[in-house]
Write a structure and sequence with these properties.
alpha+beta, 3 strands, 3-stranded antiparallel β-sheet, 3 domains
Amino acid sequence: MSRDRKRVIIKREHPELSIIQQCKLVRLSRSAFYYTPVGIDTDTLAMMKEIDRVFTKYPFFGSRQITAYLRREGTAVGRLIAKMGLEAIYKRPRTSQPFPQHPIYPYLLRKMQIDQPNQVWSADITFVPVRNRFLYLMAIINWASRKILS
């Protein structure tokens, strides 16, 4: 049930239940019950339009580049870019795309007690973005000692 629907259910002038009790019954915090949304002022709206203009022109810009671009134009930007949910468009690595026909194997270590070195090793791979490319980093880890072997 949405927060707005819960607010409607709670009656301020209920003869038997206080607002606190009603909030507990519908699992809504009192602050959420009393909260009244604040609108966006015209300055913030104008700044958001400016951010949107730059992001539309340069969709590959990240938040830092948009901020720097607008500063050069004489506009100061706060944390609105994250609030607007803007994210740079760029090619991301496709490291976790499983093959559809590949079988899914059971997890064999679920109930295993790991208490001695060299009993279980694991490998992990990740990528590190560098300039226009990605470097791949691989590590082999001993589970008992938590040391990286290679």
